[in-house]
Amino acid sequence: MNYKANDGIYPFYASFKVTHKCSLKCKFCNVWMEKTKDLSKKDVFKVLDTIGNSSIILVSLEGGDPLMRKDLGEILEYAYKKPFYLFFTTNGDLFDKRPMVEYGKHIDYLHISIDEEHDNLDFFERLEEFQSYGSKICIQSVVTKESLDTIEEKVQKVYNAGARMVIMPATHLDGTDDFYPDPKKFREEILRLKKKYINTITTPNGYLDNINKSHGCSASSVIIDSDGELFYPCRTIGKRHFNFTNGSFMEFLKTDEAKKARQDMKNCNRSCGWYQYFATDVFSSPASFLSSLRPYLFK
User: Fold this and answer.
1) Alpha-carbon span 144 to 195, nearest angstrom
2) Structure pTM?
C-alpha cells in the first residue's frame, strides 16, 4: 500500500516507551530528562489494542528502561498475545533484580544496550547467560565519535556468542552534546564489519546509505510516548497528533493533519540519522530487505 501511494502512510514498526524512568543517565540520551507521566496498566493495554488493530507488525517495548515498571510481567503477557512480533529493549541494569526467564517467555527478541556510555561492557562476558532467558537476543550498541574505533572488538564477541547486533550512531538530540560520528566513516566501518562477521550485524545497508543522503528518513516507523501520545511524523520534529488510548490509528493516518505531518518530514533538512526513521525506508528493494533480515534468519 505504501509503495502504491508513493508515501510511508502505513507504519509497520513502532517503539512504545512504556516509561521514561531509567536507572541511567546517558549523555547522548534525553529521554530520562523528560517528565512525561506513565500510563496505568489498563491504558497500556489500550495502546497495545490500538497497535494490534493497525498496520504495525513489529513493536519494541522501550523506555527509559521498561524494567523499571513493576507490572511489566502482565504487560508482556498481554502484548505477546497480540498480532505483532514483540521486541524488548533494555540497558540490562536491572537484570539481576527481575525474573528475566519468566519475562523471556513473552518476548520474541530481547535487545540489550551495551556500550561505553551505558558503562556495562562487562555484559559482553554474559551473553551466554542472557541467551538462557528464553528469547533470542540482539545486542544494541550506540557509537559515538570517540568509540567508532572500538566497535570491532564488540562485534567479535557477539559473533563468537552466535548472537546478533544492531549498531547505530549517537543521534544528536535536543539538550545533549553532539556525539554523532561522521556518517561516511560510520558507513565504511560497518560495511567492513558486516563482510568480516557474516550474519551478525543487523544494521541494514539501506540505513547506512540513507544517513549519507540529504534526506533519507521515512514515516513507516513511529514512536509512542509513555502517555500514549504519538510523535508524528517523528520525535525529532516532536509534534503530537494522536493518542493511542483513544480512537483508530488507521483512520488518523488518512487525515489531512497526518498528510501534512508526513510532508513536514519530507521537507525536514535536519539529517539527524535517527536509526528508527532512517532504517525503515519504505522503498527498500527486496535485496535490501533481505540484507536487514538475514542475520535474524541465518547463521
Assistant:
1) 22
2) 0.91
The C-alpha atoms of residue 240 and residue 174 are separated, in whole angstroms, by 17
pLDDT of residue 288: 52
C-alpha cell belonging to residue 197: 562477521
User: How many alpha carbons lie under 13 Å from residue 215 in its C-beta half-sphere?
Assistant: 10
b/e per residue 212-227 (b: at least 16 CB within 10 A):
eeeebbbbbbbbbbbb
The residue behind cell 558486516 is 194
pLDDT higher than threshold 70 for residue 2: no
Please state, as a whole number, how many other Cβ atoms lie within 10 Å of the Cβ of residue 256.
7
* Assigned C-alpha cell, 232: 508524528
Number of domains in the chain: 1
Closest CA relative to residue 157, chosen from 115, 187, 185, 101: 115
**Which regions of 82-215 does DSSP assign to beta strands (E)?**
85-90, 109-113, 136-143, 164-169
DSSP 268: -
- CATH assignment of the domain containing 71: 3.20.20.70
CA distance 279 to 262: 17
What gap in Å lies between CA 59 and CA 34, rounded to an integer? 22
Residue 220 cell numbers, joined = 513507516
**Among 53-62, 180-189, 211-220, 281-290, which is the least confidently predicted range?**
281-290
pLDDT-derived band of residue 270, with 50, 70 and 90 as boundaries?
confident
What letter represents residue 161's amino acid? A
Tell me if residue 192 falls in helix, strand or coil.
helix
pLDDT of residue 145 exceeding 60: yes
Phi, psi (degrees; rounded to nearest 5) at 242 = -155, 145
| CA distance to 96, 176, 230, 248, per residue, from 119 (Å) | 16, 18, 31, 41
The range of the structural domain enclosing residue 186 comes to 2-297
For residues 224 and 230, is the Cβ–Cβ distance under 8 A?
yes
